[in-house]
Amino acid sequence: MKAWTTVLEKAKEFEGTQVGSGPESTISAVERLNAVCALVGALEQLSRISDYRDDGTVSWQVMRERFPEQDHWKMRVMDRVFSYPGVAGMTIVRGLAAARLLLGRPGPTERKLLDGVLVAAASVGNARTHYGGDGSDHISYVGLVTTFLARLFPDDARAQRVCLKFLSFQACLSYPVSGAVKVASPTWRSGRAITGIFRTSTYGDKWLYELTKKHPAIPVLLAWTVILGELAFPLVLVAPKPVARAMLTASTMFHLANGRFMGLNRFVWGFASSYPAVAHMSRGLGPAAPARLESGVR
Question: What domain range is 41 assigned to?
Answer without folding.
Answer: 2-10+19-286
